[in-house]
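Exercise 7 asks you to align residues with tokens for two separate proteins.
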Amino acid sequence: MSDRAIRNLEHLRRSASTARVLNLLKVSDDHGHTDEWSEKPMFQTPSLNTSLIIKHRLRRNETDSFPGRRQVATKLVLPIDTADLKTGGRFVFVNQIGFERVMLEAFGLPAEHHDIRTLRLMDQLPSLDPFLLREQLRRGGVDAAPCYFAISEADLAKMSAFVEREIEPLVTLSIGKGVDATQSSARMASKILSNTPGDRLEALRMTLRLEPEQYQEGVFCWKGFLYYKWSLNSMMQDIVKVADEVASVSPWGPVDASSREYIKRGRGVLRSNIMQTCEKVSQTLKYYDQAYAGLTQRGDPLAFRDFLLEAPTLFTRLGDQLGAIQHIVSFWRFRFNANSPPVQVDELIDIFMDFETGLMGRNFDDLAAEFPV
């Protein structure tokens, strides 16, 4: 492991979980003494419960490690010494070729083990955003303690209120105009957010003529769209602020000519890429808005049916884009707050390279042609 990789690992230890990184080592440091951490662990294997799990954009020499074509993988990093990350770490990609053999040889875990299933549930998500990660694990029967998910009660309340407002037109369509839909919207929002079945949700499935599995997967991704829409709205001021700070940040200490040129170029490119990615997220969300308006305003359920069928693919696209933005904002807050030490040139270059890699456009040409937004 290179010096720069070691420095990155040390930063990950100190920083909280983000949409790209699940820092179980920090969760263990902060909550390992509590009953909830020990009684409801995310993983049953102790070493996995102090690991770092990263949504990693694959390099060209890594793509052959997988049986199919993919750009982002779930990377499981196990520090050699959790007290001293300078010793580096071992890693494996979830679902890489030979993954089951590696997990059996390294941890004695058979393919059907709870922890293998948990890792595969994580691998199905486009990002490790705590809200969606919690919902995905619950959907898969994994009931991990709240300390593993950095979600405040205030944010949960705001998210619930946002979902209620979003689905009120659908509830009004169901119960008729002129009737107060507030309580009905709250109940339906609760069912959507908790994956709880209900008569009104079943009626919607029948209206859309979807099979139960298609509908369940579509509704989960619909919930993801609602969450991402709320996230983008609530983060927009911070995104613009971070983008402006990126454009003006300078390293501390001496800077050679080549580093100065890279940072000068990187400021402008990175800021532009951040804002362009936000625009792509907005365009993907507009596709959902149009389909939902067709159902609730024009009485045309076919567009929303098509959206639910396409939602898993679009959800991956959206999560990849917004996850990269969320990671940048979260890490920037951590590294460039008032109490942080000055950033030196090598570290700033590392940060720029990491951010640029995360924002690197996936090839969505085929998707754009099939699902115009």
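Second protein for Exercise 7:
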Amino acid sequence: MMTKIIEQHRQRRSSGLGNQQQQVNSKDAIDALLEMQAADTITITDDHIKAIVFFSYNVFVGGMEMTSTTLEWMMSSLIQYPDVLKKLQAELEAIVGREREIQESDLKGMEYLLSVVNETLRLYPAVPLLIPHRSTEDSTIDRYSIPKKSGDFVNSWALGRDPIVWKDPLEFKPERFMGKDIDFIKGKEYFDVVPFGVGRRACPGISMSFATMNFTIAQLVHCFDWRVEGELDINECNGAFLPRKHDILVFPSLRLPTCL
């Protein structure tokens, strides 16, 4: 498939169809890579182009999947724990006020918002089993011998609910992350909760996912109050990802007229 797409781009470039401005407007990442390939200033083969495109696709799709799943669990948890929702709204009002919508630049000082996101990732990691790894050398972990080239699966779901590590592990308590210097994006490792993995093999979509999650949930909580009719279903599905078993149906009511 990718070979065919690359050839189509190559033929379009060589045919010179359309005027120059149209070619500029329709230029995409593959065109840019083909230009670099033609310039011969750096060695880029078609295999390199395929690898770059597929990597970019995985970053985009992985970030979207983790973001949408986590946002659903975050909304579920905030509705299930209205005191947490009110506390988050209070932080948003203290920083932003009620006269305008939230801007992305406002998010930097919102510690409780970050704690809500981290607590959601602890309880409901979008990928319960991280991408498999393979050990590069013989090692020993907690008296267990791990031979070289062993396949390793990290259960991030179990890590986040371990009663030895977490007090009241099934309770949604963002306060447990207050004052802790955790930054998944900058690679500050915190092995008690690893929703994105750690080290060089961490998820490359962290930055996109975090930016989208923080900004989206802040907008939803700042602009609206939320309620659910009947009992809130918090059952999970089993699989490679951890979505809700049933869709969440909630009813918003406007808090801020500026959000209209």
